[in-house]
Design goal:
heterodimer, A: 184 residues, B: 6-stranded mixed beta sheet
């Protein structure tokens, strides 16, 4: 059970860290999502930093204090907030950009995905509660942090490589276009 | 000690994640700027006028084209830098469905162009034509290169400029196993 708990902790932390840190590079997108959900414009800009901050803080709690009731409450609260956002989008029948993982997931919209993910968040919190009932040694938390960090950095490196190749093709095409344009 | 080192690894990897995320955004911004400037594979449609619906052979081209269900007839000039880039990208092998017309002032210039880019027609596969002094292009009212004419069921249907290798690869009518270097 502890092994399962540690795996869940690592995956959950990786998701929260990846989403939270990606959101920090696109706070404007978060603000527009909050505005679309009904938050006043001034409040949406103030709250836009709070969302990724709470995700990163929860991730650190999952890594270093998974047994803590505060961590579990934070996990369920975040899952609930995401589900609520999805529910608002579904009820209003609006296409609201999620910006869940920053602008790199620009094609995603709030909706059923967030609602259906709520049981996963709750289930994950329960696994943490029963799988890791006592405090973890600091080295274990640090290991999980390193593993989660390396995992999301590797995934982002793959995404970066794809856009580098795309940009190379764009550069070659633009160079060809530059050569052609002056003639016509 | 181990906890400190592992924590450092974790923090550094998160920093790397953030830096990579920013880089991805930068590359996407550059793409957006290139697209806004109109230099990102933006072909121009060419009005082919009375040539629409007419068979290629009526302009002095091969009768084989009249029997093609789908073909792309690419006009290249020996004096056009983009044409040279496109010719080089073919690597001496024409993908199925692609036919070439080489525009040059003289037959010798056209022959040199074909030889330079290894487009010499082989027996049974004569899809490279020479148009010295632009006779065919003149009949079509064509005054620019590189231009691709689409042929469907043996008649011209449309035409457009071919600004890049990547765009050429995307408009070849029949999927080909021969890759075009992009």
């Amino acid at each position: 059970m502890t092994a399962v708990g540690l795996c869940v902790a690592m995956v959950m932390a990786a998701v929260l860290l990846g989403a939270g840190l990606a959101k920090f590079t696109n706070l404007g997108g978060i603000a527009s999502t909050l505005q679309a959900l009904g938050a006043p414009a001034t409040w949406s800009h103030r709250l836009s930093g709070l969302v990724p901050f709470s995700e990163v803080l929860t991730a650190l709690g999952v890594l270093f204090a998974p047994h803590s009731p505060w961590t579990l409450v934070a996990v369920v609260a975040l899952g609930g907030a995401f589900a609520l956002a999805g529910l608002v989008a579904v009820l209003h029948k609006e296409r609201i950009r999620c910006n869940c993982f920053g602008s790199s997931a620009a094609g995603g919209y709030l909706g059923l995905t967030q609602i259906l993910a709520l049981p996963a968040w709750v289930g994950g919190a329960l696994i943490l509660h029963y799988g890791i009932p006592s405090p973890l040694p600091p080295a274990t938390g640090a290991s999980l942090l390193a593993a989660a960090g390396l995992a999301i950095a590797t995934l982002k490196a793959v995404a970066l490589w794809k856009v580098v190749l795309e940009a190379r093709g764009d550069r070659l095409s633009a160079e060809e276009m530059y050569v052609w344009l002056p003639q016509y | 000690m181990a906890a400190t080192v592992l924590s450092a690894v974790g923090i550094l990897s998160l920093l790397v994640f953030v830096l990579f995320s920013v880089l991805v955004e930068v590359f996407r911004d550059v793409r957006q700027i290139r697209d806004a400037l109109g230099i990102l594979d933006r072909p121009l449609t060419i009005d082919i006028g009375l040539a629409a619906g007419t068979p290629p052979s009526s302009y002095g081209l091969s009768r084989q084209l009249d029997d093609e269900p789908f073909a792309l007839l690419l006009f290249l000039s020996d004096r056009c830098a983009t044409c040279r880039v496109l010719a080089a990208s073919l690597g001496g092998t024409l993908p199925a469905g692609l036919w070439i017309v080489v525009e040059a002032a003289t037959s010798q210039a056209a022959a040199e162009f074909i030889e330079m880019f290894r487009m010499t027609p082989t027996s049974g596969d004569e899809r490279v034509f020479v148009d010295p002094a632009g006779a065919v292009a003149g009949r079509l009212g064509l005054n620019m290169t590189p231009v691709g004419y689409r042929i469907e069921n043996g008649v011209f249907t449309s035409a457009g400029t071919v600004p890049s290798m990547r765009y050429l690869a995307s408009i070849i009518p029949i999927p080909s196993e021969v890759p075009i270097g992009v």
